[in-house]
Design goal:
19% helix; alpha+beta; 283 residues
């Protein structure tokens, strides 16, 4: 998703609903025109969450030969930065957390913003779509192409154009299995020269009636959900000067301690541009 910077612990933005298309928009020549009240914007916001990784290396580790690494401390810094990015991705896509301003602050996760798509039968219910509450679990069901198509239609109807289908490894494979079982029509590939026979067991792109989505696996998502995302309407905000900031925590005896810190918030610019398929059984 896009990257942005912000200047407050609570970042805010506004969304605008358009009036429904009308069939009676015709007036007489010279007619007096009455004005209507403007449609107000909806003000949304999310809290910045502080995520950290810390490490310490001894003087010995930075002095000895570590088989290819010049300094162990620099290597650990790169390693912790990668781990921090993984934590943020999992917090965005796999948790079910509403925004919270109490300490420690929490950034509302992706599923708290989405109201398009489907939830399981029974008690299943979407959140309010404002980041203030979460999805209520319903009855688990298997993934079907109809669920994906319905979610695409919902988001498209509300002005979105999802292009990314984000799923766990299990659901990514389940999607390919749906096509392999004859539910999708594949185009033939013509070769101009003789090549070894290759069997394609994966479907990467799904052309629906309401747009094309690319199937993208996530290493950090659970098997009970799938997202249909429009990347134009989601971004990751970080506070100025707090985007993977490195802080020296000083020396403790013969070791050097360092902390990496980032203060971030998920910004869902148009919640209705996306869709979610929740309460999946992973089969």
């Amino acid at each position: 998703m896009k990257k942005e910077t912000s200047n407050g612990i609570f970042t805010e933005w506004q969304t605008q609903e358009l009036a429904s298309a009308a069939t009676n928009n015709h007036v007489n020549e010279g007619a007096a025109i009455s004005t209507a009240a403007a449609t107000p914007t909806v003000r949304l916001g999310n809290y910045h969450q502080i995520s950290v990784k810390s490490f310490a290396t001894s003087g010995t580790l930075d002095a000895v030969d570590t088989a290819g690494r010049e300094r162990e401390h620099n290597y650990q810094k790169v390693l912790k930065a990668l781990e921090l990015r993984r934590d943020i991705e999992k917090s965005i896509t796999d948790t079910n957390v509403a925004r919270s301003g109490s300490e420690p602050r929490k950034s509302a996760s992706l599923m708290t913003w989405i109201t398009n798509g489907s939830v399981g039968a029974g008690s299943g219910a979407f959140s309010a779509g404002t980041g203030t509450d979460t999805v209520t679990d319903g009855t688990d069901r298997a993934l079907t192409l109809a669920l994906i198509e319905d979610g695409m239609q919902d988001a498209w109807t509300d002005g979105g154009n999802p292009s990314m289908m984000l799923a766990s490894a299990t659901n990514r494979a389940n999607f390919s299995d749906l096509s392999a079982s004859g539910n999708l029509v594949s185009n033939d590939v013509n070769m101009t020269a003789a090549k070894e026979v290759a069997y394609v067991g994966s479907t990467s792109v799904f052309l629906t009636d309401f747009g094309t989505v690319e199937a993208t696996p996530s290493r950090f998502m659970s098997n009970d959900k799938m997202f249909l995302l429009d990347p134009e309407f989601a971004s990751l905000c970080t506070l100025n000067g707090r985007n993977f900031q490195e802080k020296d925590m000083g020396d403790t005896g013969d070791s050097q301690a360092t902390m990496l810190i980032t203060e971030w918030a998920l910004k869902v610019l148009a919640p209705k541009a996306h869709a979610g398929i929740f309460d999946l059984s992973g089969s």
